[in-house]
Amino acid sequence: MKRKTIKTPQTLKGVGIHTGEVCSITFKPSEQGYISFIRTDLKAEPIIALAKNVSSTLRGTNIANEKAEVHTIEHVLSAANGLGITDLIIEMDGPEPPIMDGSSLPYAKAMLEGELKEIDQTAEVLHLEKEITFQDGDITYTANPCQDFKITFVYERKGHPLVSHQEYTFTLTPESYLKEIAPARTFGFEEEIAFLQANGLAKGGSLENCVVIKKDGFSVPLRFDNEMVRHKILDLLGDLKLTGKVLGPMHITCKLGGHKTNVAFAKKLTEEN
User: Fold this and answer.
1) Does 200 lie in the same domain as 90?
2) Residue span of the structural domain in which 51 resides
3) Which region, left, alpha or beta, applies to residue 178 given φ > 0 means left and ψ of -120 to 50 means alpha?
4) Is 100 helix (H, G, I), strand (E, B) or coil?
5) What residues pair up with 189 in beta bridges, in sequence order?
6) Residues 264 and 212 sit within 8 Å (Cβ to Cβ)
7) Residues noted as catalytic
8) How far from 50 is each of 55, 200, 218, 263, CA to CA, in Å?
């Protein structure tokens, strides 16, 4: 499998969902062997998208170095992972990528508009030769060797009348990612809004970029009847990109996972392979 980048730069602009700050993000071709984020508004070194550089996982995945931090990178990395992109420079003039419509589809479309290009070097693939498990309380991850790369995710919100249990199995190809996962939007519960705002989060959240789940309905029409679990897979694919490798054939089963445990599982995958 060859490494992959884009041919031409592509730029998007919008507000960050948590910081509320307007930011332009530009995807640029690279042959550096990894994905990096550069804060063009700061005099700082690039931040390489690796699990060891994760600085926070509170309602999103942030990475940092000594002088800079980038917030909520999982949707951008999910798009790169879904399309098989291994090499990319991501320039930002603010702290957080624009949330766009709350999914990773706008990022994926921008990368495709930049035209994907193979690099004449072999990608580093994370191969699995044995079962790997990770557990944190009720949260579990299991990875087993498989012919394809697939994810089974179990999402639960016990007692909720609309989304108490959702389960989905997804086999990754660029085509299936664009159709089944990329359009799934971020979501939150009506009762969580006050907590998020009290903790300085969701400053840029709106009905244009987030599905708010109420007890008797949704703030906007859903794109899938199980959009929540699909978005959880979207997030997991983004966090797993922090392994810094192409994910080889394996079947990952996750129950109740979130950013903190996604990153911990990504570290375990790299440590045991």
Assistant:
1) no
2) 2-122
3) alpha
4) coil
5) 213
6) no
7) 259
8) 11, 26, 35, 9
Alpha-carbon span 156 to 148, nearest angstrom = 26
Structural contact between residues 90 and 37, judged by C-beta atoms closer than 8 angstroms: yes
The maximal CA–CA distance of the chain, rounded, in angstroms, is 53
126: Cβ–Cβ under 8 A, 6 or more apart, which residues?
243, 245, 246, 247, 248, 269, 270, 273
pLDDT (tens digit, 9 = 90+) per residue, 63-75? 999 999 999 999 9
DSSP 8-class letter at 124: P
d(CA 66, CA 43): 11
φ, ψ at 222 (rounded to 5°): -80, 150
User: Are 116 and 132 in a shared domain?
Assistant: no
Res 196: pLDDT: 76
- The residue out of 122, 141, 163 marking a domain boundary is 122
Name the DSSP class of 186: P
Whole-number percent of the chain with pLDDT over 90: 90
Local confidence band at 272 (pLDDT 50, 70, 90 cut-offs): confident
